[in-house]
Amino acid sequence: MGVLEVKDLTMDFGGLRAVDHVSLEVTEGEIVALIGPNGAGKTTFFNCVTGVYNTMQGTVTINPPGREAEEIQRQPPHIITQKGLARTFQNIKLFQSMTVLENVMIGRHTRMKAGIAGAVFRGKKTRAEEQKLLHDCYEILKKIGLEKWVNEQAKNLPYGEQRRLEIARALATEPFLLLLDEPAAGMNPQETQDLVELILKLREEESISVLLIEHDMSLVMSLSEKIYVMDYGKGIASGVPKDVKKDPIVIKAYLGEDIDA
Amino acid sequence: MIKDRLLKSLYVSLWLTVLTFPVMVIRVNTIEDTVTWRWGNLLLILIGSYVFSLIWNYALERQERGKKVKTNKLSIKIKEIKATVSQSRPMKISGLAAVLAAVFLFPFLTSFYQMSIMNTALMYVMLGLGLNITIGLGGILNLGYIAFFMVGSYSYALLNQAIGLNFWIALPIGGLVALIFGIIVAVPVLRLRGDYLAIVTLAFGEIMRIVVENWSSLTGGPSGIRSIPRPAIPGVDLNLIDTAKLVYFIMIVLAAFTILITLRLKDSRIGRALIAMREDEIACQSMGINITKVKVIAFALGAVFAGVAGVVFAANTTFINPASFTLWESVLVLCIVVLGGMGSIPGVIFAALVLKLMPEYLRAFSEYRMLVFGAVLVIMMVFKPGGLIPEKRKHYNFTNKDAADFEEEDV
Fold this sequence. Notes:
The structure holds 2 protein chains of 2 kinds. By secondary structure, chain A is an alpha/beta fold. Chain A has 2 domains: about 1-85 and about 175-260, P-loop containing nucleotide triphosphate hydrolases (Rossmann fold); about 95-175, no CATH class. Chain A is about 40% helix and about 25% strand. Chain B folds into 2 domains: about 1-65, no CATH class; about 115-385, ABC transporter involved in vitamin B12 uptake, BtuC (Orthogonal Bundle). Chain B has helices at about 1-25, 40-65, 75-85, 90-110, 110-135, 145-165, 165-190, 195-215, 215-220, 240-265, 270-280, 280-285, 290-315, 325-340, 345-360, 370-385, and strands at about 25-30, 35, 395, 405-410. Chain B is globular, with a radius of gyration of 25 Å.
């Protein structure tokens, strides 16, 4: 059984069925891509899995390594994050006026304990926790390659670095599954290449599984071990990259149908 | 370029002259059926608006060009001095000592009048700092903040009437009651954001005031509650001036307490969560932060400080009625936070002092108070949207390659 198993997930907006009985599975250590034309419902799917939307039908089951499997659909986003699913956003959602380091520190929020009393009295425990936090977050920044920006405000970072910071922030929540929503959007080829290396490195070193939405086909083909294709809210194909690439249904969804045929 | 600018300003001033013509130039005397033409005013408006428009446009252009790095000798020198002062420890300590001495000596060197307006100003410092937690850190626009101030005042006044509650015991109780009210308001507010949230808090503030105004049997209605005891030290006889001094020091201690808590909160786990919520609610939730909890904290914690300040307010004036807690007061506190800089502690203190003291010292111009106030806010929002002293985030210095040893640095 995979670390993430989605069965028959369905989401309606009024009369529009944005996601229609989509099923998907990610096994441990796997990099899975979710592709499809614009408006296919990929981001809605992400939002349902991470709890931003209330899923209408279907189940989302997680099976974290070393823990028991449980269903997480219709739970609030912060609970889902606590359970080990972390995500990034298609349109970058950083905490703009906070520093890079602080952005990462926010990610650690759920793994810490200090409350208001801790903040006001700053006891030994709180200070130790804070020290460890700083240390850990700096390590994460080093891993992602953002350590030279530590005290810079997030909004002042170049675009590609902002995307990397989103990943760093997601990593700080200590996830077993990373959901990346178009991580390479707006990146130049060099930055995309760096991103591929980063994702592979994370999988190796942190044993994190990855589910990503992406339009950059070269990235998808070189990175993913399994691809799911969505169109008009439905899952239309799945399989290994080289099969999906040749699948006539997928080609039709992307390029349209030949009139003569 | 220059010609364009001059022409543009000319159009603006002509348009304004035409617009204000009926009000500023024509004066009709309906009794004698005569019309007076005040052409002098026309000229004044024409020239005045022309000059103003020129300055305004020039300032806007400068703003758009962005800040130039200052290169003349004087500004470099000033920068150097600033750097040395902020880096050397003895300089910092002596600066702090000077401020403390000034704060301590103030009531002994000034008149009763000065002291009493300073007392009111200090209450607004505390209110500003409290609202700073809700708006500046949490990003929750609370337009009914003064209601918590009222809750604090009335809880002291009523409890004192009923069971003769002592001022010193009332201080924490006022805060506690405000906290409870803060949580009560926070619950319906949780589902809302942005404008809707602002409207609900606005309604809350007004409802609270109207309830107090009409519940005559309990609160005395519009005529309020009289002869509330002033703060006193048991066994010591204090005259009016001594009491004012006592209130001054109580307010200083309370304000310092508020500053301390805000400072510690800002760079703590909870404080960062508050700021993250201000920046982006969805991302904040997706990072595992329980936004419901954080919102209640932002609301209730802000309310506590207003409640405590309210107790001192009631004791200081000895008389309270609902007219002291109108929407205008809420707006004033909001302006303090916005003008000072959201989330910035020195900014809020400075703005509170300016906004509360200026009207007192400029009584001669009290008719134009609102006009000046509005103009200042507009100018601020255009040219310095971050506030007078914008918030600065804490910087951390990682000295070694190994992150295990690092220094914290406050900037």
